[in-house]
Structure to design on (234 residues):
């Protein structure tokens, strides 16, 4: 069964450093998302991406964050200058498949296993 | 704006006992509701979803949930707990079906005691 994969599983970085979290969505999906979960808190939406551009973003997704789909398979989240409060589990998700009639089938969001980011 | 409240961050049941995980939502429009499960070191997996077709929704692994508009609830149940059900369970809401952001609850960790 197709699945979303994420690398690395755990990333440790120093405050102020740049990090890139990588995701490989399910191959025929059209919509991509990043969510995060700070320890003990809710899973929160960060950003969604469709047709090579951001379709929606939350207040959390400020200028420190950026997303990119550099090739046909990867979807990345970059944090330019990490802060202590960026420490969290980051989840990637994908959804949406074109039907035979070129309409998008709205469907379940499939999540990856997450990357635990620790900022020291 | 939507929100989700999951009562109980940790629920413990005996093997074979009823599982009841509570979820209440707030939404200004008819909601779409989801339950996801996360096993250790794995991603969030969809258990079931409510999309207004039927108020009682059956999902995978014997779980079901009932949408009660009057109570703004979408509680998850399973008649008989199995050891393999031990996991973290997340309730989520969206105001549109499909490719839109989900709003999650804080999650409930289910422990199953032999």
């Amino acid at each position: 069964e197709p699945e979303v994969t994420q690398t690395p599983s755990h990333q440790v970085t120093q405050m102020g450093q740049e990090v890139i979290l990588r995701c490989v969505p399910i191959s025929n999906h059209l919509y991509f998302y990043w969510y995060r979960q700070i320890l003990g808190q809710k899973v929160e939406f960060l950003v969604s991406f469709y047709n090579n551009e951001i379709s929606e973003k939350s207040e959390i997704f400020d200028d420190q964050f950026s997303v990119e789909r550099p090739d046909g398979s990867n979807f990345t989240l970059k944090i330019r200058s990490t802060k202590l409060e960026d420490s969290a589990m980051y989840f990637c998700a994908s959804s949406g498949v074109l039907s035979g009639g070129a309409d998008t089938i709205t469907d379940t969001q499939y999540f990856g296993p997450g990357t635990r980011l620790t900022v020291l | 704006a939507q929100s989700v409240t999951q009562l109980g961050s940790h629920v413990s049941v005996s093997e074979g006992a009823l599982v009841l995980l509570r979820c209440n939502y707030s939404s200004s429009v008819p909601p779409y509701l989801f339950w996801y499960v996360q096993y250790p070191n794995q991603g969030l997996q969809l258990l079931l979803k409510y999309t207004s077709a039927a108020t009682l929704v059956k999902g995978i692994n014997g779980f079901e949930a009932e949408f009660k508009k009057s109570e703004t609830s979408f509680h998850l149940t399973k008649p008989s707990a199995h050891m393999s059900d031990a996991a973290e369970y997340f309730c989520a809401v969206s105001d549109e079906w499909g490719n839109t952001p989900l709003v999650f609850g804080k999650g409930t960790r289910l422990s199953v005691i032999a």
Notes: The mean pLDDT of chain A is 90. The two ends of chain A are 37 Å apart (CA to CA). Residues 24 and 74 of chain A are 5 Å apart (CA to CA). Chain A touches chain B at residues 3-4, 6, 9, 30-31, 33, 35, 40-45, 48, 50, 56, 58, 91, 93, 95-96, 104, 106-114 (CB under 8 Å).
